[in-house]
Structure prediction request, 401 residues.
Amino acid sequence: MRGPRATLGWQPIATATAFGPHKLVSQHQDARIRPASFASGALRQEWFLGISLATTLGFALAGENLFAALSNPLWLALIFLWLFGTVMGSALAVVHHADQVAEILGEPFGTLVLTLSVTAIEVMSITAVMLHGANNPTLVRDTLFAIIMIVLGMMVGGSLLMGGWRHREQQYNLQGANAYLGVIIPLSVLTLSLPDFTTTTAGPTLSFGQQLFIVVMSVGLYGAFLAIQTGRHRGYFRFEEPDAAHHPRTPPRLLPHAILLILYIAPVVFLAEQLAHPIDYFIETLQAPPPLGGVIIAVMVAAPEALGATRAALANHLQRSVNIFLGSVLSTIGLTVPVMLAISYFTAHEVYLGLNAANDLLLVLTLAVSVVTFASGRTNVLQGAVHVVLFAAFLMLIFQG
Prediction:
């Protein structure tokens, strides 16, 4: 019997029948080798998990000594980059494995796994920084607004610019985009603008009753959205891309990616708390603009999703991009706000949600432009350029507000 196996050391069983004992032994050996090969390959691919765990162990054992010299600018930069890079790398790995889970589950469940994973990282990071050092009542507001502007400004703009540049014009499911924006707009305005106009409490704050309303309203609307996204109107969040059928490939296995997703998220809880030390020192001691703390967290949280959305747009899968960036904003407001209000209540850390007048105007303008952008079912580079300009205005207001 001659064949491919004869060249791989199978000559001694060449005379065995197809159902002979030697054949069964060879298949058994082959079955034992494959898991080992898969495991060794997985270990090589997931090398960053070792860095994440080693960093966690290092700061757990010697964190006080490492933070003792933050007054040295070079050491401050090194510690910040080390922690920021590790958390960012872990977040990128989370997105990678969430993408693999998404491919198995299909839309819209896949994108839901991705947005919920990133929201978990976001909540952990904000909580760690908020509870560390001096109370910063604007941190939650600054982070939420920064995420909205990064996603609806830079992420949407970059995706539409690069996707439009390569494919001229791209299409998506208009009903899905409208469903997202129909929930994002009231949640954004009621959360970040309403506190500027209420009179029950002084300043850009909400009374307990108003906060309770925001929590119930946010969770309720997000739950209603999930009901239509995963149930009766799942078709709103799908679109048959022109080249979707030309790239068949074997789907990944669910369990390994689900386990690795959890393993990468776990160290972020501790590392985000450690990252609070250089962030607080930078803002409180060096008198940096307070919104920068929120921007740093927002960049760390939004960057992995931004890469995923941009890759999808370049591959002419704009529907996936829309699901990623609009789903990211929705989960940020619909889930993060209720959790952070609950944490602030139980830890007695005051939270300011209302934006100042300039940022309030920029928020309304960004939401209005987003409605115009996602009103036709088609996008081009001009729309992307407008969103990038709005993000540039956001950065300008941080330093020249």
In short: DSSP finds twelve helices and two strands in the chain. Strands lie at 170-171, 378-379. The CA atoms of residues 372 and 383 lie 9 Å apart.
